């Protein structure tokens, strides 16, 4: 980690949503320090670009994304977005809370994935610029995608020196499952490189969670 001066923050218009999706303006927020530059959209809190220095001192974009809004309004594998209310899969799109069963939209074989048909990745968030970042807010109304309770959500991105931090906060009016994360795809070789098949990763874990053929934990 490297801690340095606070980042500069700029905002600009990235595009406008299609009329059938409300037609709202999508803004892009650019956070920049001496060693990192990140671009974040008000659509889905998407990290559209993350430029950082390699060992050669050159800057390169290390996350996958699109240069235009059109790429994000079409089907894509959640590039850079905040996913929710529940990241990952809910088996058979069903869960029970306080003795009541709730049913969700099935969008991943027999399961519900990343919040359902129109999860947090596909909606516009309300931004507030901070001295070194941006905070996005939205209210997910009771019953949205089948989930109980009015859910207020804040997602805050801050950049300090070489460290980009994401903070998630949620407040609900009813008991509800909530599991938020960012869904960025990384290629540390940078934009323009072919693939990540020569990357190596080490995970120092004492155990792991086996899943079945539909990627649901077996227990």
Automatic annotation (TrEMBL):
Write out the pathway annotation from the protein's UniProt entry.
Carbohydrate metabolism; galactose metabolism
Give the catalysed reaction(s), semicolon-separated.
alpha-D-galactose = beta-D-galactose
Q: Which UniProt keywords apply?
A: Carbohydrate metabolism, Isomerase
Which GO BP annotation is one of this protein's?
galactose catabolic process via UDP-galactose, Leloir pathway
Query: What InterPro entries does this protein's entry cite?
Result: Ald1_epimerase_CS (IPR018052), Aldose_1/G6P_1-epimerase (IPR008183), Gal_mutarotase_sf_dom (IPR011013), Galactose_mutarotase-like (IPR047215), GH-type_carb-bd (IPR014718)
State the Gene Ontology terms under molecular function: aldose 1-epimerase activity; carbohydrate binding
**Record flagged with keyword Transmembrane:** no
Give the function comment from the record: Mutarotase that catalyzes the interconversion of beta-D-galactose and alpha-D-galactose during galactose metabolism. Beta-D-galactose is metabolized in the liver into glucose 1-phosphate, the primary metabolic fuel, by the action of four enzymes that constitute the Leloir pathway: GALM, GALK1 (galactokinase), GALT (galactose-1-phosphate uridylyltransferase) and GALE (UDP-galactose-4'-epimerase). Involved in the maintenance of the equilibrium between the beta- and alpha-anomers of galactose, therefore ensuring a sufficient supply of the alpha-anomer for GALK1.
Q: Which family does it belong to?
A: Belongs to the aldose epimerase family.
Listed name of the protein? Galactose mutarotase
Task: State the organism of origin.
Answer: Gavia stellata (Red-throated diver)
Which lineage ranks, top first, belong to the organism behind this chain? Eukaryota, Metazoa, Chordata, Craniata, Vertebrata
């Amino acid at each position: 980690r490297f801690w340095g001066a606070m980042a500069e923050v700029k905002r600009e218009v990235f595009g406008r949503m299609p009329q059938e999706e409300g037609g709202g303006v999508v803004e892009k927020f650019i956070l920049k320090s001496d060693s990192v530059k990140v671009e974040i959209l008000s659509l889905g809190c998407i990290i559209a670009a993350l430029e950082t220095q390699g060992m050669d001192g050159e800057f390169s974009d290390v996350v996958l994304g699109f240069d235009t809004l059109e790429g994000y309004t079409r089907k894509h594998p959640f590039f850079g977005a905040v996913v929710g209310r529940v990241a990952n899969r809910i088996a058979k799109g069903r869960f029970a809370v306080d003795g009541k069963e709730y049913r969700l939209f099935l969008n991943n074989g027999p399961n519900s994935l990343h919040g359902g048909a129109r999860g947090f990745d596909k909606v516009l968030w309300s931004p507030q610029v901070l001295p070194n970042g941006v905070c996005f807010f939205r209210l997910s109304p009771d019953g949205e995608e089948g989930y109980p309770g009015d859910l207020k959500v804040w997602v805050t991105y801050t950049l300090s020196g070489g460290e980009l931090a994401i903070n998630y906060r949620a407040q609900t009016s009813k008991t509800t499952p909530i599991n938020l994360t960012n869904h960025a795809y990384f290629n540390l070789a940078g934009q323009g490189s072919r693939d990540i098949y020569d990357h190596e990763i080490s995970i120092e874990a004492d155990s792991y969670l086996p899943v079945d053929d539909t990627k649901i934990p077996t227990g």
